[in-house]
Every structure is written in C-alpha cells, then in structure tokens.
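[09:14] KT: can someone run the structure on this one? pasting the chain below
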Amino acid sequence: MAKGLWKIIALSLAGVLAIVVLVVVGGVIAVLASDKGLIAEDAALLIISAVMAVLMMALSLWLGVAWMTRIDEAAREAHKASWFYGGSGGLAVGGVFIILASTPPAARLTLPAWFDGRTDPAAYAATGAVGLMTLMLIGYGVVWGWWWLARR
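[09:31] RB: done, structure tokens below
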C-alpha cells in the first residue's frame, strides 16, 4: 500500500462521519425551524440536500487530490490514461444517445420514471447524467484493466 494511504483512509472516514453529523444536526434544526413556521419544509429539505452535496463533493475532491499525490507514477499514469481514453469513449457512446434523443422520432419514446415516479425535466436530466457517468465509469474500468494487463 502506498505511503500515507492509511492516513487518507482514516481522514476519509473522519470526514464522512463529520458530514453525517453535520447533516443530522442540520436536519434537526431544519425540522424544528419548519415546525415553527420559520422556513417552508421544501426549502429546509433543499438547504440540507445542498449543504450535504457541497460537503460531499468538496471532500471527494480533496481526497482525490490527496490520494493522487501519494500513489506512484505508474498508478497515476494508469488512471490518467483510463480517464482520458475510457471516459472519453463512454462519453462518445453517451453522445450517440444524446444525438438520437434530439431527433423527431425520439419525442414518441417514453422513459421509465426512476426518481420516485417523477417525470419532470429535472428528473430526466438527472437520469441522463447518471447514465452518462455510468458509461464513462465502465469505459474507465475497461481501459484501466487493459492498461495494467498490457504491462504485466
């Protein structure tokens, strides 16, 4: 295991625990404020979700940078190549679906409602984003495996 990786793992767990505590405390405050009529329930939920999302993304970026600076050069090159070639390949596959979705016949297609039965544009945009990220991660995984197998 790379030097300093255990410290990153410990900090990751501490960071996740801190986020959980902040979200729970914030949630309790938002519920109390909502019950007293100080803030609408939907606004409280949106605020808590936004704070949680920002904290989790900031923690993810920080941990990614900390991890990437501690791995060796071969592992760094494997990840860079995987994200470039695999992620780009997945994005290209997703691009085909985006282009096809813009054609007139696509207007007659119906998509399953994956977000709590919602069929609004935001839910469909989130579905597309998750689908595109999935294709990019699949491409990344394929190229990462190929990169290491080619160098064995």
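[09:33] KT: thanks! The mean pLDDT is 86.
[09:34] RB: yep, looked fine to me
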